[in-house]
Amino acid sequence: MQLFGEKFLNREESLRVEEAIEAAEKSTCGEIRVVIARSAPEDVFAAATKTFAKIGMQKTEKRNGVLIYIAVNRKRFAVIGDEGIDVHMGQEGWDRTRDILADNFKAGKKAEGIIEAVGEVAKVLSEYFPPEECDKNELPNKPLEV
Q1: CATH number for the domain including 73?
Q2: What is the pTM of this model?
Q3: Sign of the CA dihedral with 54 first, then 7, 125, and 28 last
Q4: How many domains does the chain have?
């Protein structure tokens, strides 16, 4: 994805985010996805909700998927979770994750913000959705750039 001639995340940053998701998911049977949208509509939350469904996050067995959606053109983001995790995350948990992203993005630390947010989400996922023997990676870990 291009932003003024540059990718939002370079190859090394994208790999670091992917590795952070992979590491986080080792502590849980939950699923975390990162979507970076070059061009999103004004209503970023609605776009994130639509994307959540489009990429099948609501199809996880325990309904415990979390999407970090970044709308590059709007300089905004949304973090949403399926019903299984939403009940446990609570508004405070979503607010903490939002603040982590906002603070890092303001400081120009895009990859670091995403990685730290993934870790924050993983804390709650691992508490309520610990890894199981039958756990499988239901969704890709690589950040999706659209």
Answers
A1: 3.10.310.50
A2: 0.90
A3: positive
A4: 1
